[in-house]
Amino acid sequence: MSESAASVVSLISVLEAPFETQANRAAATASLETYRTTAPAQIIAHDAITSLVHRNQPTAVRNFGFAALTHVVRARWNELNENERVQMLASAMDLWKGVAAPGDAVQEPWLVRTKASALLADACRRVGTTCWADAVETVKAHASAVGPNAAELACLFLSSLPDEIVNPVEEATPVSMSANKAQPPTPGNLSGSSVACIERASLISTLFSLVDSIMPFLYTTLEKSFSAAVAAGASSETAHVAAVQAALSTAAVYAEWTPVTAMHRAGMFDASAAILKAALHAIASQNGDTSVPPASFVVPAVEVLRATTSRKRSDHEHDPFDAAMHVVVDALVYAGHALLDDPRGASWIAIGGPLEDVATRVCDALSTFGITNPALVTLGAVEDPEAIGRRARYLEILLAFLRVPRVQLAAAPVPAWIAILKHAMGSLPEGCLRALLHAAAEQLMRRPSKALAGGLSSFASAYCGDDADDLDIAGTDLHSFLSQYRSQMMELIRLVCNGDPEEAASAANSFLESASALPGIQMLASRPAGEYGKLLQLQTAAAPGTPEAAVSHAYQHFQASVEFVESVHGSLPFARLQAAASGSNPTLAASLGATAKTLLAIKWTEPWLASLHARALESFGRYLRAGSPLLISVVSKLFEDIVQMEMRSAADSGGVPGLPPPFPDLAWRACFGARQRCCTAMLNTAATCPLQLQVHLKDLETQVATLWAQGQLRHGERNSLGEMLLAVASAGSPETRNAMSAAADPALAASLARQKEVVDWMMSSLHVAWGGGASMPPYASGDVGAFLTHFCAPLDDASAAEAAAAAARIGHPPPQRSQLIGGTAARWAVYHEVHMIERVLRRTANIPYEHPLQHPFDTHAPWAMRHIFGILVALNKLYSAEGRTTVARAGMSALLEMTESEVHVVLGQSAMAVAAAHKEEDLDGGGVGGVSIYSTRQFLRGLRDGCYQVLAIAATRCPKGFYGGDAHARGAEAAASLLTCLESIEHRHLRLFLRSAIGSIVRCCPKELRGAWITPLLPPLVSHLYARLQDEWARVGVGASQGAAPAATETTAEVVYERLVRDTTREFASLMASMASPDTGTGGMSPSSSSPNLMPKAGSAGAAIVALEQAYSRKSAGGTSGEDMGEPRSVLEWLLVHQPATGACVIQAAATILCWPDREAAQRAAPVCRAAIALATRDDRLVELTATHVLSCIIACTRVDVHNSIHPEALSMIREVVMRLSNRTSTVQQTFALTTGATPAAFAELDKQVRTGGSEKKLRELIRGIITSGAAIPVAAADVSGGGGAPKNVIALGDKGAKVAAQRAAQGVPE
What we know:
Structural class: mainly alpha
Oligomer: single chain
Shape: globular
């Protein structure tokens, strides 16, 4: 033994010593790694071959020796010369032979056997394909001469040989597979352990040429060793057992890529099928025991067949391929029946059962075959009885797996059935679709959709039954798996409905009738509301045999039947529904009529059942639209369901119907949800068939008004039903946007009249409550104290005692008096009133500003918007320093903090985490009408968001009422309200503020009213946001994470703060991009849309700037200064003319955003920089700003790593600046010199290349070279970016802007 080898043995003994110190172990590990990576490859090979892998060495030493040899072959092959490489291959072969013990002698350890085989395969791949045939013949001959031990090693070698050739490593560079480009591998063109750096075509070709030699060897190995292994019986560790398992495993590896016909010719599929059948027979006789051959061969045999089912039939080998697949599928079908037909099979295939893995593999293989080769299932079976029987057996077992209770098995066949139905539904045997429907219904009954009220474990139990505790999917993965399973089941039902709608409707009726007649349903319907609430909400479990268990079982079945009805009714072809409605399809009409009769006869006041009842009635919407006479019956029944359910109110409701009591119990919440669900069902029904309901609009309006006047509707229910009336009233209204020809359309006028009637009724009560806008109520006057008194007054003693008693009744700990807040009636009312306005505006027509007809909301807009502005003033002041002091004095400082659920949303947590946080915080469950701090926080957030949404929709859909009238007074009032305490608006509120309220005004304000609305609004806003964000980003720092996981040293508050700053920056960038868009002022953008998509593909800045120049060009295009620019189209142009300092600030802010490490914000700000470049070519005033600040920031952008996706765009913008402005000002060259250190000669060369029309790619590379070769000088060092406080270096456009304004005033043009 050499000295180095002896040292290695000594070091390994240190690692193996049980009482060695950790320091010595670490030192030994480091020394071994140094030896393996730095010692000469020849020394390592010599030591390993001659000493380390010898039989008399300990297993740990041999393991290290084989690992060292493998490292030499894979990573250090280039260090060996040609002769040494040949010797290495010969040595690897000798080692392999030495490991193969003769006959049935004691085997080498598994680790040694696998490493010796893998080493030989690695050496063969490194030497090249010229040695492969000889190596294969050598190992085959040795296996034949020596016995089963060598046969096993030969199989291990053959399974390792295709590694990294058929399946290259992921990081490999893609290579061409064309044969004319393929070159044989040589020692010089292999790098490391991956062979993907060479052409793989020749390697795969060589492998294919060896298949006809390898497959017979594998078959012979199975033939010789299988009988011997079975004869050995319980002695399952014999060499013959190992040989059979290795041969099957190798066949499975080759089945993934070897021609199917070649394996079939060699008999591999027949052999695998025979072994599988023998194994299953042995398992049945051994009562599920898989430890004794041949039962122990069941998994590798299945794997051979499973790997084959993913192969697709080629165009030139139909019959041979089909014959091979018949053997494979027949064996799998046999296995499926053996697993499912045996009475003991249910326990065998269950979670933890002895055949759990086998069942999963068999089911997956059958499903894969149906997905990959649906044609083999559905075609060619018309006249061939054998094919008909084979198809029937396959479909039968696939259906059987679809029906098993275990969810992971039941989910696997669904994609296969979907593929088969899509391919050739008409060729399926009779009764197949009916059986599929019944199977789908059974699974839905086992796993109805339920909320996560009882937590994840309860959710899993509802879906998975007894498998829930052992299901090997956890957390959100379980939620995703089950959601995908249900969606696939819905798709399956939809396809079956398209194929046989009559059968589908009949099955839906049958399931609904049987479920509604269950004794548990009758028991539930007869009990007081909410008695079984916790049981039905998955908060408690029912003991078997109890009434609660019967109720739970029945409710689950009824819920599943309703979901099945919804799926079927939503999937029936509309033409068939029309035929049923007209009497042309009496079969379908009878099924639908029977279902409707069952539902209409039900009279349930139990809220859980009433919610499902409403869903079932809603599912008839498409049938009602087709002309069914059931329309009035369905709508009347929904009204009846609403009225007959209890609407219990708080003791001190303040005249607000249905106000939640303190800490409402489950019965109250269930009734509340059920009534709201009925209202939603009516709304959805009206949205589905509005024209059919339009003739009944008067009656519907009378019914809703009566219920509201009698106090039988809550505010939210009134809102839903009012929206339902608007959906009916607006049906058939022609599109008015950009269609002035519709002005004279009588249908439009009639539709607007219907809408106005409904709007007037809905707004009438609000007009009284809000004082008609004549005088603002105290809470909307801006007085924080009055706001708190109205909405957040402390509870009196009686109410506090009631709250404590209610909390005790539902099992909550006694609430602290300081945590209880009153004003619930006022909060409940105003919250729903604001959201009513939002729903009214969403459902009414979209009338452009220039349209001659009036919007239905126009007469209400002045007083309603004034009230909305007043609420926003109060909310803004609430977060000011004065407001916070007032809140703290009232003992409610926590009122202004973020909730945990909000924090989870900002951090990007899962929906389940957000829901869990909401459940933990929402102690009283009363929503915005609750008495807790959390409920009041929800109210403040919902009220603010609702006000912003009202402004956004009104500015877009009702521009005449929003902007018109006394435009200057309204614009000033809006600006004063929105910008009140602007510095105190938190980042979490700024996002929606900028996107909805400000963004909609900027995008949709009519051009002629910009002076009244834009002038008071944008200058202070833009200046404030620019200065504020500069300070915020200075605090966040340039090292902020680009939305990545927070560092370990960052606190949650710091991460939340950074994310909120990013959100504000992105919304500000989007707002400025909207200002730069030539389309602003047209009203053609929805209030929820983000900035216009002015970001072209990378490298196309030149084309984008040319397009902007054309869009910006106007009637007076001959001049180059602001006076001659004509009438501005974009808001940015308008600002440059009328508010030049603000326009310059917009450009400067957008350019500065490019320097901040937020890729999304930079992408949104880039269009403004392009607009600045386009405008600078026409406006001399912008030349210096563009040549200094804009250019400096674009250059800085190319140095921000997270902006790599927009670097090509930035380089193209730099080119455009040089091309358009370098001949007009020397500042371009000066900026280049200052920010990149570029010499005059380098810039002159760049300017020359730009003007001679070089390719864009070459110019980008030239610019990149100048930037990277120079010194990276920060933008701030060039004095072109602002610091804290007010934005710096805003260009002085005031003189020319004043001159333009004076000229326009003289011409009578309004500001």
